[in-house]
Amino acid sequence: MKIRINRLHADAELPVYAHGAEEDAGMDLKSLADIVLEPNRPALVPTGLSIELPPGYEAQLRPRSGLALRHAITLPNAPATIDPGYRGEIRVILLNLGTAPYQIVKGDRIAQMVIARYEAIEWEEGGLNESTRGSGGFGSSGR
Ligand SMILES: O=c1ccn([C@H]2C[C@H](O)[C@@H](COP(=O)(O)OP(=O)(O)OP(=O)(O)O)O2)c(=O)[nH]1
Question: Which pathway (predicted)?
Fold first, then answer.
């Protein structure tokens, strides 16, 4: 499917699948700025992109596993939600869980974006059907 996208800055780059749409779920998002990530200080990183998702679709932003493993860089709000009605710039909240500052350079791939369908639901109040689990949870079935 086609999704409308705007570059809000001449240097903004469209997200791409690294191995093609058949093999990847996530497209890499690139930073539009040089930013130093200080340990334990969330930073808002611009992408220079805005999109128009059809109703029933969201974009989810997720960490890149390489950055997470090698540099302890994550998205504290992952999976971040980009709503179909949002027309502003997509920005990525990055958090450095390491102990040393980490330099993000303009053009670095900082996160991945997955386009996902969701159900728009209405609540129906009333009796709930019985189930085997019932109200058990939080380890009730043992280790
Ligand atoms: O990492 C993120 C998270 C959100 N957004 C944008 C798109 C999203 O549609 C909008 C609102 O996000 P969210 O609903 O998570 O924010 P909120 O804290 O609940 O604020 P709001 O009251 O604006 O909904 O902000 C981003 O660009 N990056």
Answer: Pyrimidine metabolism; dUMP biosynthesis; dUMP from dCTP (dUTP route): step 2/2
4-117: CATH topology is Deoxyuridine 5'-Triphosphate Nucleotidohydrolase; Chain A (2.70.40)
Q: Which of 101, 26, 21, 114 is nearest to 66 (CA)?
A: 26
The CA distance from 33 to 46, in Å, is: 7
Helical ranges in the chain per DSSP H:
65-71
pLDDT digit string (tens) for 31-53? 999 999 999 999 999 999 999 99
| Complex-level ipTM beyond the 0.95 threshold | yes
Q: pTM of the entire structure?
A: 0.95
CA–CA distance from 60 to each of 36, 63, 116 (Å)?
A: 24, 10, 7
Mutate to test the pocket of ligand 1, among 62, 86, 113, 115 (most ligand atoms within 8 A of CB): 86
